[in-house]
Amino acid sequence: MSLLVRVNLILAIVFAAGLGMMLALNRGMLLENAHRQAMDQAELMMLSARAAREYTSDNVAPLLQDKLQDHFLPETVPAFAATRIFERLRKELPRYTYKEATLNPTNPEDRAADWEADVVRHFRNFPAMEEWSLERETPEGTMLVLARPIRVDNASCLLCHSRPQVAPAAFRARYGDANGYGWQVGEIIGSQIVSVPATVPQELANRLLREFVVLAAGTMLAVFAAVDIALVLFVIRPLRRMTAVADAVSMGADNAAEFESRGAGEIVALGAAFNRMRRSLEKAMQMLAR
User: Fold this and answer.
1) For 69-123, what is each residue's pLDDT tens digit?
2) Which residues have a Cβ under 8 Å from the Cβ of 52 and sit 6 or more positions away?
3) Are 115 and 154 in contact (CB under 8 A)?
4) Would you tell me the crossing angle of helices 3-55 and 78-89 to the nearest 10 degrees?
5) Reduced to 3 states, what is the DSSP secondary structure of residue 273?
6) Cβ neighbours of residue 38 closer than 8 Å, sequence gap 6 or more
7) What kind of fold does domain 10-202 have according to CATH?
8) Which residue has the higher pLDDT, 267 or 290?
9) Which of 81-85, 89-93, 216-220, 263-267 has the lowest mean pLDDT?
């Protein structure tokens, strides 16, 4: 096995061992960072939905309030605005889902599922809590969930949700008199819920790991190339020339050129010592010939 092959083999073993240790140490950190990034994205989408709710409640609904008696306008409903804004955001992030889960909703589509109802009741039991992150198991796999409570903070909501008798006629004609009434100011009536599959941060972490491996492999190949070039130029070629001179001398060639040794370093010192040994050997042979 040549010197070049041995050096490359040693470098490959060291690289593989180091890469394995780095992957083992960094995978957990990358997964944690990816999980945090996924939840930060969920929180940003949650804040966008909340901003849409507040803008609709404070700016849009008052402008159209007079028209609600004759025509129901869903654009005046904060939940409608938040849901539509999130649908636009999902074009960029399709794996995130959003729901305004409500225990007693006007729109049946907003009715809380069993686990969503548990989230709402949790906020009711801990009214000071403003946000809750949790994981839940589903038939499709683990889901990461970010939830925030929905409170009746504005008395204007009671115009439609206090009693059926005071709700606009167009509102009652659309949704009836059975659901979405009896709300009170300060009551937690539902929860904003953003969900994302746990595979999203896992896939992100795996992608970062692949990119790291590719970068590390490219760096190692560059190191291999640099080491190989240095070995060939400064070690292997001088040793081959020295070997050629030694072979010629051993075959009795008197006119074999000396090994050229210029500069400094171990190989140059070895070449100089080889030339001295050759001259000493030639002098010894000449003395024996007399």
Assistant:
1) 667 767 777 788 888 888 888 888 888 989 989 998 888 888 899 999 999 999 9
2) 78, 81, 82, 84, 85
3) no
4) 160
5) helix
6) 144, 196, 200, 201, 204
7) Beta-Lactamase (3.30.450)
8) 267
9) 263-267
DSSP letter string, 198-220? THHHHHHHHHHHHHHHHHHHHHH
Determine the 3-state secondary structure of 139 from DSSP: coil
Kindly state the tokens that stand for 262: 């210029």
Q: Which two tokens stand for residue 142?
A: 């683990």
Which of 261, 247, 256 shows the shortest CA–CA distance to 279? 256
Distance of alpha carbon 85 from the chain centroid: 25
Q: Are 182 and 162 a contacting pair, CB within 8 Å?
A: yes
Collapse the DSSP code of 159 into the 3-class scheme (helix H, G, I; strand E, B; otherwise coil) and give the result: helix
- Alpha helix segments (H runs only) across the chain: 3-55, 61-64, 78-89, 114-125, 158-161, 169-175, 199-231, 237-250, 266-289
Listed by start position, the domains of the chain span 10-202, 207-289
Q: 115: closest CA among 137, 130, 82?
A: 137
Question: What's the pLDDT tens digit per position in 223-260?
Answer: 888 888 888 887 788 778 777 777 776 776 666 666 66
